[in-house]
Amino acid sequence: MAQRARRLNPFQFLPSEFFSFRRRKIFQEFSGFGKAIDATLGVSGLPQSATGQASILSGVNAARLLGRHLNGFPNRELRELLSRESVFVKLKQRRLDATFANAYQPEFFKSPLAKHYVSVSTAAVTAAGIPLNDIAAVRAGRAVYQEFTNSYLNARGFSLAVRTPEQAGEVLVNISLRHDFTFYEYFLSDLVGHRKSFDRSLIEVSKLDRLLKGICARFDFKFHTLLVTSDHGNLEDPSTKSHTRNPVPLLAFGHDAHFFTRKVRSLADITPAILEFFER
Questions:
Q1: Among 58, 78, 117, 204, which residue is least crowded by beta carbons within 10 Å?
Q2: Residues in the chain where the model's pLDDT stays below 70
Q3: pTM value?
Q4: What is the DSSP string of 224-235?
């Protein structure tokens, strides 16, 4: 099975600059480092979104806290954890300006269920009192939707400028220049992985590669650092609809990239490394 998974791995098939297994050139160009980090968090079973994301955004091993991996939305215990330990809360306490670059559709703000069925990222951001972006922010270039080309939103009648992945990357850079810390979340790659569509997986890897290319083309890496990671494995093995127990990548670019690849060994190490980075 392991050999079959390697043959199917979409990251092996594309001429990707960022996600190939031979990315030495792009790392040299943007002072980058990469390593595999643990997403299992020392807990049996398959890693899941709620505990993986909570671990990334709190610095606490959320799976060990619950004694299991939790999928989907955070439960009460994880929401309470994020209200205390969210990286956004901690940065605000240090008088640093953090933002969540994603945007929400109007239905989210109108639905009475939105308060109860929020994602980990939404809970982490709102715990710090950071306002959530709407579609007007996307139109003004102050936010990027989770489907970053705006094609999905236009299909729903919003009439926004269509962006290439590279242009979406430029928008994210412009947003980051106005803040000390910017977080952007992308999860269509996870949805494609669950559908076991190898062709769609190739498309998603290519789009993500182009998004990162757009970011790196505009970043001044003497003064900024870019981190890329995932809450669990999935897309790398289209032979299964489930998540995997594989390590996930931590890609870091910029003058301080090596600081993060030295400090981070698992998902729960990311927020502590970010906080230490700002305290140096």
A1: 117
A2: 1-7, 15, 20-26, 112-117
A3: 0.91
A4: --EEE--SSB-T
- Number of structural domains the chain divides into: 1
Residue 170 lies in a domain: yes
Predicted confidence (pLDDT) per residue in 178-213, tens digit? 999 999 999 877 777 777 777 787 888 889 989 999
How do residues 229-272 score in pLDDT, each as one tens digit? 999 988 788 777 889 889 999 999 998 999 999 999 999 999 99
Q: What is the CATH number of the domain that holds 158?
A: 3.40.720.10
Flag whether 279 is in a domain. no
Tokens 């979406």 locate to: 168
Query: Which residue stretches of 140-269 are H helix?
Result: 151-155, 165-176, 188-194, 198-218, 257-263
**Residues in a beta bridge with 249:** 36
Instruction: Please state whether 157 falls in left (phi above 0), alpha (psi between -120 and 50) or beta.
Output: left
Residue 57: inside a domain: yes
